[in-house]
Amino acid sequence: MTTAEHTEADRHASWLELFFDLVVVAGIGTLAHLLHADHGPGGLALYAIAFVAFWLVWACFTTYGNIAGEATRARPMLLGMAALAVMMAAVPEINGEHATAFSIAYVIGRILASRPFQRGTVVLDLPVVQALGGVVPWMVSWWFDGSVVYILWAIGLAIDVGVLLLISGPRLAQNAQEHLDGLRDRIDGGERRGRAGRRDAARSGRRGRAGRGPGEGADLLGSGRGRDPRRGDRDLPETVRTLAGDEAHLGERLGLFVIIVLGEGMIQAVAAAGEATWDVDLLLAGAGTFALLVTLWALAVRGGYAGVALLATGAVSPRAAWPLHLVTTGALATLVAVLGGVLVEPGESLTADVRWLLLVAFGLYGLLGAVVHLVLGIRRADPRGRQTALLLAVPTLVAGAVIVIAGDRLAAVGQVWVLAAALLVSYAGSVRVSPRPADTGAPHLA
């Protein structure tokens, strides 16, 4: 198997990629409104489905741009942008008359993202871009109504996430090579039988029985064009070509998504403050929200990778970076969506369900980062990895315990500052215990 890797130096996001990311700005804001409308169990499930679907389409097109580099074509990216825009426009009525429009746009987006990759190639970093099995339940949902639709969506996403988590790139490439070898063997055998049949027909003097001519029948590769049997297998590659992206460029693209999520949190906070009563509680809550968002930026973007706090660029492989990015951005998007509602009445206590949603999102983000650093620290026998894990885990757990114990006695402004203080402690500790810069020989979390 041959591998294509990008070695362009100092490559950054193109204007086309930045323009494509504008749909992320609209998407995160729309999903936040969906969460505000219903944060019960059913609403949370629908929010999670919509976020994962949106993220998957974005990730597939981002992978295309990352691998193609300067050869990235505007048409696929703009069509993908249009598909994502339709999905987000359908979100306000996703549990009603616009559910079918959302699913159709999702299916179109996934198919469009897979088309630029030629046959005989395997994307190692994000194999789900070529695996369209998870799209089938979405198509089946077009013939159903009610909760069955969303169950089918969840099944489709579970298939895709399973591919993302469980199927390794090398194993996928090996399977593709075995499939290609079998295909070439079948073609060779069919052509030998075809030639023998034509010789027998010529000897018997029968006419009109020599088989199909060129242009008749479907091409075995699925292009719908006929094959000339005389060409043999010359149009089939002998080996599968594996595609690997540009890690530095991918890190920038993943970081831009995180910045957009945090920026949406700032937008929601400003919008809520504009409608709230301007008093001391609002001033303190606004300052706490600003401190929290800025510290998240310092931890997750300036000092992190793939949304994971304090993770050095290249510390994990792109294959592992994608699922980490999905979880971290999902937690951050939920966190900033809840924070947007805090400033409406900062002097009041949060309801129990909102408070738990805030704690789960905050805890998931901090503890996931701690687990990643702990695993890397053990693999490298590096005590700094374990120290960084403690810097993230301990403040997260203490902040959660304080909010749980205080309960309704602690107003929203106080809860915001408890979370902000936990992040500030983690950041202050990271200044003294910083992760070692990644090098080419660093072990990857695969």
Automatic annotation (TrEMBL):
This is Bacterial low temperature requirement A protein (LtrA). Keywords: Membrane, Transmembrane, Transmembrane helix. PANTHER family: BLL5714 PROTEIN (PTHR36840). It holds the Pfam family LtrA. It comes from the Bacteria. The chain crosses the membrane at residues 12-32, 44-64, 122-144, 150-167, 254-274, 280-301, 322-344, 356-376, 388-406, 412-429. Residues 184-203, 225-237 have a biased composition (Basic and acidic residues). InterPro entries: Low_temperature_requirement_A. It comes from Occultella aeris. Residues 184-237 are annotated as: Disordered.
